[in-house]
């Protein structure tokens, strides 16, 4: 068991705190739990892709759970994978894609762990069709606060299960996760990409054609104003069947399940300041123009799902103050509120390069799970700009006013009141959490900040 | 816990009646601010205008010269109100007209401004270390950068407090806790009421803006106004005869 004092932040690199970072196996954590807990508790940390402070625990212990010797076990008959919590989707995909399987849900990066995927109940471009990660899980092995290890399912321990799916790691240490893989024939997707000139056209197109594709997302230019407000590139796709790939991309069809995405070098520290509004404007313009008006073709899994993984540490482009990502969902019937918010963001002028608009499907059932039916918008903001706080509080009010909520995995700014208003089942969650962890073994900076514990 | 904009949830002010500290709290105020603990001798109720709704302001008894009480005091505040995100060390006295000639009065001033700063600073540092985060904002003064004949006892106390604060800051590197030493010039406040203004005089609000910017930039020393950093780079080395002339 290795341990060191380390200053940790989330992916947005704001609000650091120093904790004892421990790299340990599940057995080590179990046997040493009392010592690890100390006065300030323990939280698991995967690859640190949450934007704020859920995987920090100032003055306490942060555990990076090391995968065991046989971390990925696949039942080839059922397609159910049992994967150690510390395994990244990157590592998992390198094993399962060549076998003809894909993960049921992937976020915009492969560099998240399976444990984190459960704790944040992550979603992807297929949320409208397939729901969130938790909806595909069949069983979890957990280390609980009393030191016991349990294998739980949605039926065996319904309370703990739904408090853990999206529970930000605060109900217990997730040791491994069993979930249903989906079969694929190739490592490509068939993708329809189109430019959409404005927000109204985008809303109309997404409403009309979402159901025709498994994966859909719109990249929206939040710098554009006036008649270009909400101009977007809409990308919709499905896994390519082998016969489709043979037709459109015969070269790739020779070895259709070969999967070995390159790992690119990190963006250097302290690069040029890319934050000027003009730079963003130029970038967004070029990116919009480079997209053909309408294009049908194939893209690799990595190109389609994980374009930002092409550059390591890309967030360094945001400069030394770091950044935050603001993501919320509002119900379908509140589309006017979404329109109002997008207009406000465009007029305010601090939006980053690209933002993402997506229609979400059914809730998973996780008490603190973010996704619910409606429109979700995600955009980046620089943390170094003075005065954005009050402005975002106005957006919070708009979101909460129509029954929307904010994503805890992105949060670095919310208040206990904002979370309580967005998550009506929070009290239910707290009751379960208090029952399974009466002494506060599991704790994080976010949990303290948001009064979750 | 600070939010992504370095805005605190819980602020403790040692010297809870300080105008400058009130301005700092106002400047750091946001929807995230839940608790402001104003600690001062007597503990009578003190209010701060212009805070966001929802921020709870409480006054508690704190005596800077009761050194033995400081550790327990800080622990009690943290236990009751949660992690301390920002602690402002704002107490301090200017000393009366006779302080430069009265050994007893001068000794008392040192007890408040230096010994109190050291004992409470160490108590706060221990708590912030335990948390793995948090900032101690120490209101020093340019008066300590080079002591003037007209207020050298006060200047000496500020020099002592300042040296302690910067040293403490170095000792905390790697712990997650930080110290930010603030060196204001002449600030128009209750403490300086009736005194002649010095050049580059500013208001408590100006100090507050500099402090908030310093917190965002993770500065260890902040001057207010900022130009004083350069002014004192010169004043610190001008010959004594010139320095004495300037103190008129």
What report would you give on this structure?
The complex is a heterodimer of chains A (453) and B (248). By secondary structure, chain A is α+β, with helices and mostly antiparallel strands. Chain A contains 15 helices and 19 strands. An eight-stranded antiparallel beta sheet of chain A has the order 15-12-14-13-17-18-16-19. A five-stranded antiparallel beta sheet of chain A has the order 5-6-10-8-9. Chain A has a four-stranded mixed beta sheet with strand order 1-2-4-3. The longest helix of chain A is centred in the middle third of the chain and has 14 residues, at 277-290. Chain A is globular, with a radius of gyration of 21 Å. The model of chain A has no long low-confidence stretch (mean pLDDT 92). Chain B has helices at 19-28, 70-81, 103-131, 152-171, 204-216, 228-235, 240-246; strands at 10-14, 35-40, 56-61, 86-89, 134-139, 177-184, 221-224. The longest helix of chain B has 29 residues, at 103-131. Chain B has seven helices and seven strands. Chain B is α/β, with parallel strands linked by helices. The model of chain B has no long low-confidence stretch (mean pLDDT 96). The relative contact order of chain B is 0.14. In chain B, 40% of the residues lie in helices and 16% in strands. Chain B has a seven-stranded parallel beta sheet. The chains are: A alpha+beta (453), B alpha/beta (248). At the A-B interface, strand 2, helix 12 and helix 15 of A face helix 3 and helix 5 of B.
Annotation keywords:
heterodimer; A: 453 residues; alpha+beta; 5-stranded antiparallel β-sheet; 27% helix; 24% strand; globular; B: 248 residues; alpha/beta; 7-stranded parallel β-sheet; 7 helices
> Total strand count of chain A, please?
19
Oligomeric nature of the chains: heterodimer
As laid out across the biggest beta sheet of chain A, the strand order is 15-12-14-13-17-18-16-19
Helix content of chain A: 25-40%
Q: How many DSSP E strands of chain B? A: 7
Gap between N and C termini of chain B = 46 Å
- pLDDT < 50 stretches of chain A: none
Structural class of chain A: alpha+beta
Largest interface: A-B, 38 and 28 residues
Cα-atom radius of gyration of chain A: 21 Å
Mean pLDDT of chain B: 96
Structural class of chain B: alpha/beta
Gyration radius from CA atoms of chain B, angstroms: 17 Å
Low-confidence stretches of chain B: none
Q: What is the residue-mean pLDDT of chain A, rounded to a whole number?
A: 92
């Amino acid at each position: 068991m290795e341990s060191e004092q380390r200053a940790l932040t989330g992916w947005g690199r704001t609000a650091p705190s120093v904790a004892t970072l421990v790299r340990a196996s599940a057995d080590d954590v179990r046997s040493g739990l009392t010592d690890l807990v100390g006065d300030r508790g323990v939280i698991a940390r995967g690859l640190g892709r949450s934007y704020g402070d859920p995987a920090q625990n100032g003055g306490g212990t942060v555990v990076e759970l090391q995968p065991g010797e046989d971390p990925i076990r696949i039942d080839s008959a059922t397609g159910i994978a049992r994967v150690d919590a510390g395994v990244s989707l990157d590592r998992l995909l390198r094993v399962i894609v060549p076998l003809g399987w894909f993960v049921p849900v992937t976020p915009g990066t492969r560099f998240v762990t399976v444990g984190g995927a459960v704790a944040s109940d992550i979603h992807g471009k297929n949320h409208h069709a397939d729901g969130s990660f938790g909806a595909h899980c069949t069983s979890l092995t957990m280390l609980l606060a009393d030191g016991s290890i349990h294998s739980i399912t949605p039926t065996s321990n319904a309370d703990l299960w739904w408090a853990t799916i999206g529970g930000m790691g605060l109900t217990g240490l997730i040791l491994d996760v069993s979930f249903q893989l989906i079969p694929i024939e190739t490592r490509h997707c068939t993708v329809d990409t189109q430019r959409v000139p404005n927000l109204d056209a985008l809303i109309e197109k997404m409403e009309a054609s979402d159901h025709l594709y498994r994966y859909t997302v719109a990249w929206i230019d939040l710098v554009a104003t006036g008649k270009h407000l909400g101009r977007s590139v809409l990308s919709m796709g499905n896994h390519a069947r082998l016969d489709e790939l043979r037709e459109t991309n015969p070269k790739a069809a020779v070895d259709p399940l070969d999967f070995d995405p390159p790992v690119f070098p990190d963006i250097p520290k302290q690069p040029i300041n890319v934050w000027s509004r003009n730079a963003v404007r130029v970038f967004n313009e070029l990116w919009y123009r480079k997209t053909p008006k309408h294009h049908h073709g194939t893209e690799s899994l990595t190109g389609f799902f994980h374009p930002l993984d092409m550059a390591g540490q890309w967030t360094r482009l945001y400069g030394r103050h770091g950044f935050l990502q603001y993501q919320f969902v509002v119900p379908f019937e509140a589309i006017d509120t979404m329109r109002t918010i997008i207009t406000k963001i465009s007029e305010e002028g601090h939006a980053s390069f690209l933002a993402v608009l997506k229609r979400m499907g059914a809730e998973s059932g996780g008490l603190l799970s973010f996704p619910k039916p409606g429109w979700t918008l995600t955009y980046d903001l620089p943390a170094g700009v003075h005065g954005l706080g009050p402005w975002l509080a106005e957006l919070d009010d708009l979101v909460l006013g129509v029954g929307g909520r904010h994503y805890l995995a992105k949060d670095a700014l919310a208040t206990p009141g904002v979370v309580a208003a967005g998550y009506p089942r929070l009290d239910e969650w707290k009751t379960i959490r208090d029952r399974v962890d009466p002494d506060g073994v599991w704790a994080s900076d976010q949990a303290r900040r948001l009064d979750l514990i | 816990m600070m939010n992504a904009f370095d805005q605190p949830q819980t602020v403790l002010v040692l010297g809870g009646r300080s105008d400058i500290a009130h301005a700092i709290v106002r400047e750091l105020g946001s929807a995230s601010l839940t608790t402001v603990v104003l600690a001062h001798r007597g503990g009578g109720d003190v209010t701060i205008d212009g805070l966001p709704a929802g921020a709870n302001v409480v006054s508690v008894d704190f005596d800077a010269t009761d050194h033995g009480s400081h550790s327990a005091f800080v622990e009690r505040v943290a236990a009751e109100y949660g992690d301390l995100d920002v602690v402002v060390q704002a107490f301090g006295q200017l000393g009366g007209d006779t302080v430069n000639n009265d050994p007893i009065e001068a000794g008392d001033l040192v007890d408040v401004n230096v010994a109190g700063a050291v004992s409470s600073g160490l108590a706060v540092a221990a708590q912030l270390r335990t948390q793995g985060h948090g900032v101690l904002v120490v209101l020093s003064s340019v008066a300590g950068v080079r002591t003037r004949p007209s207020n050298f006892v006060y200047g000496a106390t500020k020099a002592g407090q300042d040296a302690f604060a910067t040293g403490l800051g170095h000792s905390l590197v790697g712990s997650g806790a930080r110290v930010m030493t603030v060196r204001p010039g002449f600030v128009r406040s209750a403490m300086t009421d009736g005194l002649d203004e010095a050049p580059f005089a500013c208001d408590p609000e100006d100090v507050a803006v500099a402090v908030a910017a310093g917190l965002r930039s993770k500065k260890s020393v902040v001057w207010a106004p900022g130009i004083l950093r350069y002014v004192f780079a010169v004043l610190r080395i001008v010959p004594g005869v010139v320095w004495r002339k300037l103190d008129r």
